[in-house]
């Protein structure tokens, strides 16, 4: 079916036990929720049609997020029968505890996909010594060392080969919070840096604790923007995280 389509962007959180749900299973959850909400989702053509859904950057299983995104193509503007606020209200009952719709909006035709457009992500990363003991006072010193360093080298596996990369250019911002968690903005292009790789770069003695993606960022005319900003900074609301725990 080649009729005109409208695209909507949905922003949602993924917190609590649902963090152990894989990216593929999250896609299935959204397909079911959209069906239950009677959203007229457009489908691909061909022998095996599937819903036209496009997610932002994949979130590793076990990580949480206060800023995930989903683009949905629908066969007709929702304004004909269902406005955006009503869409959010109808989607929520079909979603599991820990997945909450934060915002939704129609986006212009030709808007670049999130996979292409997101240039960095901000993370809150709990860090502990191997075995689960606290990282200790040396963590602040290691953060300072990384910020002062001209290069930060990590070993990665690429196409079955171990390669050495300098990841310092991918560390856009790095700080230590009052709760002794690292807050880091890490680039996603041209080659991204994962939270686990940052932790290893800080010290081979450390491992990840709780990891939460706070923001995904676009770069538009030199300014940093979120794909779908919230009216208020809901990403800093402890109650949102507590409900999902």
Rg from alpha-carbon coordinates: 20 Å
Order of helices and strands: EHEEHEHEHEEEEHEEH
Taking the sheet with the most strands, its summary is: 9 strands, mixed
Beta content: 35-45%
Helix content: 10-25%
Number of helices: 6
User: Into how many domains do the coordinates divide?
Assistant: 2
Low-confidence stretches: 233-240
Terminus-to-terminus distance: 43 Å
Give the overall pLDDT as a whole number. Answer: 85
- Overall 3D geometry? elongated
Q: Which structural class do the helices and strands define?
A: alpha+beta
What is the quaternary state of this protein? single chain
Number of strands: 11
Care to describe what's here?
It is a single chain. This protein has 245 residues and is α+β, with helices and mostly antiparallel strands. It folds into 2 domains: 6-114, 2-Layer Sandwich (Alpha-Beta Plaits); 117-244. Helices cover 21% and strands 36% of the residues. Strands 1, 2, 3, 4, 5, 8, 9, 10 and 11 form a 9-stranded mixed beta sheet that branches.
Please sum up the structure shown.
The chain is an alpha+beta fold and 245 residues long. It is built from 6 helices and 11 strands.
């Amino acid at each position: 079916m080649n009729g005109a389509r409208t695209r909507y962007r949905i922003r949602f959180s993924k917190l609590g036990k649902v963090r152990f749900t894989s990216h593929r299973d999250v896609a299935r959850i959204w397909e079911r929720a959209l069906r239950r909400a009677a959203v007229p989702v457009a489908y691909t053509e061909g022998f095996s049609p599937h819903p036209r859904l496009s997610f932002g950057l994949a979130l590793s299983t076990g990580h949480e997020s206060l800023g995930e995104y989903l683009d949905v193509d629908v066969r007709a503007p929702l304004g004909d029968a269902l406005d955006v606020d009503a869409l959010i209200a109808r989607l929520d009952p079909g979603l599991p505890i820990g997945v909450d719709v934060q915002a939704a909006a129609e986006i212009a035709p030709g808007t670049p996909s999130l996979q292409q457009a997101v240039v960095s992500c901000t993370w809150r990363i709990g860090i502990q010594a191997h075995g689960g003991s606290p990282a200790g006072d040396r963590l602040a010193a290691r953060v300072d060392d990384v910020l002062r360093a001209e290069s930060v080298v990590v070993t990665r596996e690429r196409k079955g080969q171990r390669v050495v990369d300098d990841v310092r250019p991918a560390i856009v911002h790095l700080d230590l919070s009052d709760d002794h968690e690292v807050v880091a903005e890490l680039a996603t292009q041209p080659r991204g840096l994962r939270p686990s790789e940052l932790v290893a770069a800080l010290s081979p003695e450390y491992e990840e604790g709780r990891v939460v993606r706070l923001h995904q960022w676009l770069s538009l005319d030199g300014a940093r923007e979120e794909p779908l900003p919230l009216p208020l900074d809901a990403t800093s609301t402890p109650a949102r995280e507590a409900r999902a725990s």
